[in-house]
Here is the input.
Amino acid sequence: MSFPAPFLARVEALLPPAEREPFLHWCTAPLPKSFRLTQRAAYAAPPAAWHAQQTLLPRTHLLPRPATAAEKVRLGNTLEHFSGEVYSATLSSLLDVYALGDIRGWKVLDLCAAPGSKTTLLSQMVGPEGLVVANEPSSSRLQKLASNIERLGCQNVILTQWNGAKLRQYTESEFDLVLVDAPCSSEGHGRKDSSFFSQMWSERSILTAARLQQQLIEEALLALRVGGILHYSTCTTAPEENECIVAGLLARYPGAVTVLPPHLPAGLPHAKGVTQWQGQGIPPEVSEHYTRLYPHLRSEMWDSECFGMITLQKTAPTTSRAEKQTSLHPPQLLKKQEKARIITQLYKRFGIPKEALRPYSLLQTPQGVWLTTALGAGFLRRSIVNRPGMPLLDANNHLTHSAAMALGALATAQLYPLTDAQYGRWLQGYDLLDVALPWPDSSEVLVHYRGRCVGLGRVMEGGKKLKNKLPRTLTLAQPVTYEGDS
Ligand SMILES: C[S@@+](CC[C@H](N)C(=O)[O-])C[C@H]1O[C@@H](n2cnc3c(N)ncnc32)[C@H](O)[C@@H]1O
Here is the structure.
């Protein structure tokens, strides 16, 4: 494996001699797949046939490297993945959120959110009283993020498409937590593509990333209420993108930022931050509390790429005096009676328990009815958003796929259970033909398989056909199919 000379010089400055060779070996060694069981998985352990190995993080597992192609677990094609019970993510990505401790009920901004590894875990951890505003400026990446929150049925996530470097134009002094998982020079990528260091790495990309990171961390600080938490991370080892960024923030806002110790799982192989870099001193509290993950620092229960993170607290007010862009047509919060009517309608149509919807706020836009949390409804009154919550009903008053995924497993009426033989073709997007459905044409049906809701169908041709309403982006070309006991 060849590495650029400036990279090797950096490794020499960062690591003691005995660690350099192991680091160079492991930073391009293929990263094993890891995944977490989400709150939708009612079981304590993944299917035994996956031979998954528990890690240091709660309900998070590593898949062993398969000896043969036949042994490979095609995670993205499984029923568990389709129904949002498992989410593939790197261990460092999940640690980034677990390191925050208890955040139930918090109002969170995930500033650089796509594809959503952290958004979806934040959503679970803040719970139905909390809110996650997930921001992503890139349209294509925002779509990927939307598809992941849809698959997991997240009911407390709002999507925005702001430029984080100009965040003060949209929001200020309002969040309990801002997570800045910054775009970076991405040395962590070396474990996904071993040609990364020889083909893509450059000192210039470090400096370009650092300039944007300085802006993002400062904007994040402004977006926090006093007492709020700023969590910053990158998947790279360059101190210019890690400790130096935090040192710069502390210097620009003296007295307004305190460094907090991270909540790390016992036994986590990691290093502390650098104490200086190329002549720039790093404040001792930053070096002490910066967590550095290197791929050669590993154990039976830990295997990760390059990563760095720190948790800060805003301790004094800040003001930007920036003029705010606010929404001219915010979604209308539905009145109590209208909300009750919709909840009753869904109970009567599908037997969806009324209690499942009562804690949420419902909103009306020309696209249909959306669901969000109480914190979300307050946020939407003035903010420009891309997607105000979970779509519940479309403009024609039909249940949406998101709502079916989030609530369909609780339904007791209008259910069509697929057979093992039908399941594979359903996930490929085919309609069901030659069936005998007991409902009138145009009825909506929740399609179930092995205790999960796997989408919506519409009855057609006098009950002989069930039209498949799976969004095309969610269909699977080669789903893993099942036979026998469920
Ligand atoms: C490291 S990735 C985020 C990964 C994500 N947090 C996750 O866990 O799935 C960084 C993201 O920042 C986004 N980004 C780039 N420029 C940005 C900006 N000016 N403001 C906010 N986000 C930005 C990138 O498009 C990219 O999706």
